[in-house]
Design goal:
576 residues; 5'-nucleotidase,  domain 2; six-stranded mixed sheet; 18 helices; globular
Length: 576
């Protein structure tokens, strides 16, 4: 109990009676920033026209946080995990700038995500040595790794006068299998841990309780429905975009749910669940009013997508051109009117801090990581490519990209059965000679995260059937599998056979009733290129790994990249 009291007292709290007045609290939050310290490109629909924009970045996020804090008399700033791993900043600097931004913004609490463990518990302990904010992991049992355990708390209590808010941190117990925590670190059941510490806080007189989680939106909803005493859940892990559906649809974006998601708790009270997409592109904001008994009487969501003041559209020649004058101003005005976007400048000191790191990352793009003795030609559907090269069994490079995805998932200790990538996700040939980091980003420019899907054999065959019929950018390339597409047959019946390579190295026919673990990119998993059958699969997980980063690792390991002996495709054209 002494240790528990110390956590409370050290944060300036006195265990006194609750306030006799209603209490207004603004909760600001981000999640799954994944080392994306600079802004990232995206496309919005503005005034009915496709408009290319830059979103987020920590300097812009800094501006947004400063503005929000000025607007509120009482606020919490929370990070719901996966602050690292995903962009070149982490690859080059091992989390130093990410750590510094966490400190500079003075987050009130930061829960670990699964990707914090990707380089092992020892690395994480070293990283946390320099993090000067409360780091939470209530269900992380690091008794076998004391250096890590010393940095972790199950919860913090923040005090605003006589009002006390408890924040409990929880990370997915799947971290044991999807990351690399190593020996000495275990992950306890999330729900049981939540119940334990909610009661502990209540016994300490804390009547406003927030769960800061990295378990995913659906798991958050389950927690909300089953754990009494919880008021708010601030989550991460699933990269869920929560917002007003009409506002987001007008911008050409789909949403995963409303902001906040309202779930009826087991005690009959509403529990408010929020999440803020990914990569620091959105600053979540929930304005909450508690009554004198600590009950939520109002929770108003105001998440905002952070947009840079610089816009492009394609001209008649399909080239992107910068918008200027009245056209640019019309875009600014439209995004300002929207309730879910804000055109925002970067914070100057934060931008100055990031600049030398960005220069280092830009220089890293020139780093040579391997070589290709021969050009690895690309084509979408098998045939003759734009360079006049006959590729009757398809792309040489796309199957290698698929293999890198399969290899990346295997590093978690829970491998996938098959990797599936669309031809349009690979943008060009890989020329003979030295291979640089920059060339990989040109080859795979979309920053697609890798999704794991549990599919039946019948669903997998349907996806392949669809892809070969569509051809073009949708054409499917694989690793860990091989298939025959006979284009002479009737549409819908062109996949003659599908085989998967088992753990024993032998090939086995696809079983329509069996469940298989498929890794694919976020674009395909989201129904891109018309793969709606993949979008409809409920059992899915966004690993947070990025396709380009996985391929960089693959090239570094392989060193010499040669054309595959087999592409995995036997393609029989309709006409010869």
């Amino acid at each position: 109990m002494k240790k528990m009291l110390l956590w409370v007292v050290c944060l300036g709290c006195l265990l006194v009676a609750s306030s006799a007045f209603a209490f207004d609290l603004t909760i600001l939050h981000v999640n799954d920033s994944h080392s994306y310290l600079a802004a990232t490109g995206d496309r919005l629909v503005v005034d009915g026209k496709k408009t290319y924009v830059d979103l987020g970045g920590w300097p812009r996020l800094t501006t947004a946080v400063k503005h929000a804090r000025r607007d509120s008399s009482a606020s919490l700033l929370l990070h719901a995990g996966d602050a690292v791993q995903g962009d070149l900043y982490f690859m080059k600097y091992d989390g130093r700038p990410e750590m510094e931004f966490l400190n500079r913004l003075k987050f009130d609490a930061y829960v670990l995500g699964n990707h914090e463990f990707d380089k092992g518990a020892k690395f994480l302990a070293n990283f946390l040595e320099y993090v000067g904010i409360p780091v939470l992991g209530a269900n992380v049992d690091a008794a076998g790794m004391p250096r890590l355990a010393d940095h972790l708390k199950p919860y913090v209590v923040r005090c605003f006068g006589q009002d006390r808010v408890g924040v409990i941190g929880l990370v997915t117990s799947d971290t044991q299998y999807i990351s690399s925590p190593g020996k000495g670190v275990d992950f306890k059941d999330v729900a049981e841990t939540a119940r334990r510490y909610v009661k502990e806080l209540q016994d300490l007189g804390v009547d406003k309780i927030v769960l800061l989680t990295h378990v995913g939106l659906e798991a958050d909803k389950e927690l909300a429905a089953s754990i009494p005493g919880v008021d708010i859940i601030v989550g991460g892990h699933s990269h869920s975009l929560l917002a007003n559906p009409e506002e987001m649809h007008a911008l050409g974006k789909g949403v995963d749910d409303d902001y906040p998601v309202v779930v009826k708790g087991p005690d009959g009270n509403d529990v408010y669940v929020v999440q803020a997409w990914k990569w620091g592109r959105v600053l979540g904001r929930l304005d909450v009013t508690f009554d004198t008994d600590g009950q939520v009487v109002s929770a108003i969501g105001k998440p905002v997508m952070l947009v840079a003041d610089g816009f492009q559209r394609k001209d008649k020649s399909r080239k992107r051109v910068e918008l200027t004058g009245e056209v640019r101003q019309a875009v600014v005005d439209a995004l300002t009117r929207s309730k879910v976007t804000a055109v925002m400048a970067e914070d100057a000191p934060a931008a100055a801090f990031l600049e030398p790191y960005t220069k280092g990352v830009q220089a890293m793009r020139k780093d040579v990581i391997g070589k290709a003795p021969k050009t690895l030609w690309h084509i979408r559907a098998p045939g003759v490519n734009k360079d006049g090269v006959k590729l009757q069994q398809g792309s040489m490079i796309a199957p290698l990209v698929a293999q890198s995805m399969l290899d990346k998932i295997a590093t978690t200790g829970d491998p996938a059965d098959i990797a599936l990538v669309n031809a349009g996700g690979v943008r060009d040939n890989l020329k003979a000679g030295k291979i640089s980091v920059g060339e990989i980003y040109t080859l795979l420019p979309f920053n697609n995260t890798l999704f794991l899907l549990e599919v039946t054999g019948a669903q997998l065959k349907a996806a392949l059937e669809y892809g070969v019929n569509r051809s073009g950018g949708a054409f499917p390339y694989v690793a860990g599998a091989r298939y025959t597409a006979n284009m002479k047959r009737e549409k819908g019946d062109r996949i003659e056979s599908v085989e998967l390579q088992g753990r024993d190295g032998k090939w086995h026919a696809l079983d329509p009733t069996k469940s298989y673990r498929v890794v694919t990119n976020a674009y395909m998993a989201g129904g891109g290129d018309g793969y709606t059958m993949l979008k409809e699969i409920a059992d899915r997980y966004d690993t947070g790994f990025v396709d380009s980063e996985a391929f960089i690792e693959f090239v570094k390991k392989t060193k010499v990249l040669k054309p595959p002996k087999r592409t995995g495709i036997t393609y029989i054209p309709a006409y010869k």
